[in-house]
Specification:
mainly alpha, 2 helices
């Protein structure tokens, strides 16, 4: 069990590190675009990015709508699901 726990901990740590560094790249790209086009000054772009990241993190803690848990948004809930052809003979 210790080996499994160690492997799981390593995978979670790698995923968190990736998400952390990916956030830096996304934030840098968003700020660079607004500064490069001279739409915003560097100071205003950084303050706006920080405020929007904080707002997004705060608002994203809410639970999603139950319709988001459906297998596919294209599947209608009123129509019965059809079985795949490979399962008909089972």
């Amino acid at each position: 069990m210790t080996g499994e726990l160690l492997a799981l901990s390593a995978i979670v740590a790698i995923a968190l590190a990736f998400a952390f560094t990916n956030g830096f790249h996304d934030a840098a790209n968003a700020i660079a675009t607004s500064i490069g086009t001279r739409a915003l000054t560097p100071h205003i772009a950084v303050v706006m990015a920080a405020a929007m990241n904080l707002l997004g993190a705060t608002l994203s803690t809410r639970r999603p709508h139950p319709a988001c848990h459906s297998p596919s948004p294209l599947v209608s809930m009123s129509r019965p699901r059809q079985r795949p052809v490979s399962m008909i003979g089972d």
